[in-house]
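Supplementary Methods S3. Complex input for the 2-(butylsulfanyl)adenosine-bound model.
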Amino acid sequence: MAVDEKIIKRVEELRALIEYHNRRYYQLDDPEISDAEYDRLLAELIRLEESYPELATPDSPTHRVGAPPLEKFASFSHLSPMLSLANAFTEEEIIEFDHRLRRFLGSGESITYCGEPKFDGTAINLVYRHGILEVGATRGDGFNGENVTANVKTIPSIPLSFAHKYPKPPDLIEIRGEVVMKTEAFKRLNRKREEAGEPPFANPRNAAAGSLRQLDSRITAKRPLDFFAYGVGVFPEGLFNTHWDIITTLKEWGFQVSEHCRRLATINEALEYYRSINSVRDTLPYEIDGIVLKVDPLFLQERLGTISRSPRWALACKFPAHQETTVIEDIIVQVGRTGILTPVAIMRPVNIGGVTVSRATLHNQDEIDRKDIRIGDTVLVQRAGDVIPEVVKVIEGRRTGKEKPFHMPSNCPECGGEVIREEGEAAHRCMNPTCPAKVKGAIIHFASRGGLDIEGLGEKLVNQLVEKGLIKDAGDLFFLRREELLPLERMADKSVDNLLSAINRAKHPSLARLINALGIPLVGETTARTLAEHFGSLEAIEKADIEELTQVPDVGAEVAKEIKEFFAQPKTKDLIAKLRKAGVIAEGEERKKEELIASPFFAGKTFVFTGALSFMTREEAKREVEKRGGKTADYVSRRADYVVAGEGAGSKLIKAQQMNITILTEEEFRRRLEE
Ligand code: IVH
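Predicted complex, serialized as structure tokens:
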């Protein structure tokens, strides 16, 4: 039976809407709707495509969320080989490259080049038929790669289709580029992983490559990957005349290309370009390890051809590596909140590209064994961009025989508790549930920005509170008294007041924050949010069995088991009892219990807050609106009825004025509440 016209229309409308909001969010960095509203649109489209499979298309934005896991990746033969690049490490070698090409071409004239950053990520080949993405594959050996199409479709900056763009897409084209993880996104991801007790990635390149090659593309979908296009494989003859044409057309088709691509008239301009990109290298949002020079006219590229799997017409000009040698003076062991022991190299301080480096994480015993790192070794250390330093390798020729191998201690350096490495795990863990490192780590996590965000409660203060026996878990924070805090180091009347009121203000977190704050192993911010949405109260999560838990999107058997075990522990029960006694209630839970207030002014209206309110927090204000039947949004859009402008209101206020949305001062808003 043919599908109802209305449904077809709605599906098309949803696709257009979702693509529009994707663009606002990912490309313009200026979202118009909240994450929750976006999720609702996507959920509706997924539901319709499931009910009417005949409406599914390969370029539907529903592919952005990933697909069920594969057993293994299929192999994919690239339509044209993915070549590699010859390298140059000095300016002399760059000049020699230009001489070589001119000799080869027998030409006295300057060659024009394109210069672009050499991205430090992982190469990918995208096959588009009639402008619709058909296959995404890794480089592999250059001839055959892995088919990672489902994963590639989750990357927001990879167009699923450019069928309706100008110039008209050819029947078949391969688009080549690099999948990268921007430095900030990489740091955020690693912070989250550490918070959830998972091992961090060594650098953005590994994070990008590892995330792309997940058999479960729903995991890839959650990783902040980006794509920069830098060239093409097969394409119809005559479509482009120069590399510059290729870059500009890719941009017109909606691909992200580096804003630093330049056309260079001579090799001298190329050298200047090389120096200028090197000087801005550390300020770029992604990591690069050099520039790539490419001969611009394609007819010259063709004449120059390829030798030993590298094109003669392109050159990777590497930047001097941010690497130095130094000596490992010691290896210490740090204990994290989940009890994982992390070995850290303490090195003779060394300046690497303007930054002094004296520590580097060695991750775990396997990593130390693999690199055969010993105390006293001279090692090569590198710093990529502004990211965490890394021990690259041991300089074996500098060994004296006095170096000492390192072994993880069998007792925890913090508490002396037993240390165990579970089968199949890379990490060693302290098994003592009351290990002070775990207790302190858990409290710091509880109070951190992703948790209850208690201002002023940092590591130093938590250490003092635990060491003085004033608190044993995060629940005790809410029972701290002035006279207990005053004698502590760097605490005076004012700072004690501030701390106590920050603790008091933290009593009504969102449920997602509260779950995240508890520090359940393997549950980070994202899973906390899905759990909150699914269950709606802490109590419901506590009571849920494994089966119910695994019904939550992205909660697998392993995570479900961790959640169950966490809530079964007596110390968790204690903690939750203390939180309840202190009146810590997650927002949604409280709302259910609160009486709704009838208010014709608020009912059905959408409010956006901007600037600081002086008489209540923004969260409280939102609750008050919702109690009266109103809605709140995080962004100004046509759907907003009122914008409440507090002190220091910024861009939202301007936008509201431009859009003619009624603006309420804080005073007016308060009067309305009191009506
Ligand atoms: S062009 C025929 N351009 O570097 C030339 N490659 O050895 C093929 N890469 O893994 C590559 N940035 O993924 C080209 N702007 C850029 C690049 C770039 C990074 C990577 C590429 C490959 C390696 C080449």
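Residues 83-85, 116, 118-119, 123, 178, 230-231, 292, 311, 314 surround 2-(butylsulfanyl)adenosine (CB under 6 Å). Residues 469 and 589 are 32 Å apart (CA to CA).
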